[in-house]
Amino acid sequence: MARRKRSGSGAWVVEHEQDPFVRKARDEGFRSRAAYKLAEIDRRDRLIRPGMQVVDLGAAPGGWSQYVAAQIKGKGRIVAVDLLAMLPIRGVESIQGDFTDAKVVERVIDGLLNRQSDLVLSDMAPNISGIAVADQARVYALCELALQFSQRALRPGGVVLIKVFQGDGFEDLRRRMRVQFKRVVVRKPQASRARSKELYLLATGYQ
Length: 207
Ligand SMILES: C[S@@+](CC[C@H](N)C(=O)[O-])C[C@H]1O[C@@H](n2cnc3c(N)ncnc32)[C@H](O)[C@@H]1O
Fold this sequence. Notes:
By secondary structure, this protein is an alpha/beta fold. The chain has one domain: Vaccinia Virus protein VP39 (Rossmann fold, 3-Layer(aba) Sandwich), CATH 3.40.50. It is 40% helix and 24% strand. A seven-stranded mixed β-sheet has the order 3-2-1-4-5-7-6, sandwiched between helices. β1, α4 and β2 form a beta-alpha-beta unit. It is globular, with a radius of gyration of 16 Å. It starts with 9 loop residues before the first helix and ends with a strand. 36% of the residues are buried. The model has no long low-confidence stretch (mean pLDDT 94).
């Protein structure tokens, strides 16, 4: 879940400034350190190749989309969606809207131009309210939407990567993904902070 930045919190600023992935992202021109989470999973699981059609859910500020655009090398298509506006990225069609709104989901489907997708990525995370039960429910509502969307958008054999948070709902989501995909594995890339409950569920071989 996206943590609220405590304004004036010296500790947060120091941690952020000293984070090696924040520095690396600045040096290498990525808009977010999140790009390195996807890069690590991609290096291990070989998800992204030129020519693919990829959907990026919860894409802002755009680190994942930048990484995917670099990997598909102008051959393929990327459709990105976020509540927040995103500065343009060459080769990425960006849609601003709330993915819990069915009309926004239809705009994303339209953006796929009747072509089945190879890969659906979801890094969506709600802002936390501090009420644990409500926050976890909102996380899994977004995961559920990402999974439902992948069933509409993916080609047979396609892949979905969904950010989840350990806790209630995790095992249920994993079980349901196993029914629809040949293989489901958990990934915790190094760029994902150890104290964060964030994990990624990677499901391959959509059937
Ligand atoms: C961790 S950030 C994504 C970072 C991104 N992957 C990157 O590499 O820059 C999570 C994003 O999910 C988005 N998000 C949360 N709820 C959403 C919703 N209902 N619809 C669309 N985007 C949403 C947030 O606006 C936020 O930008």
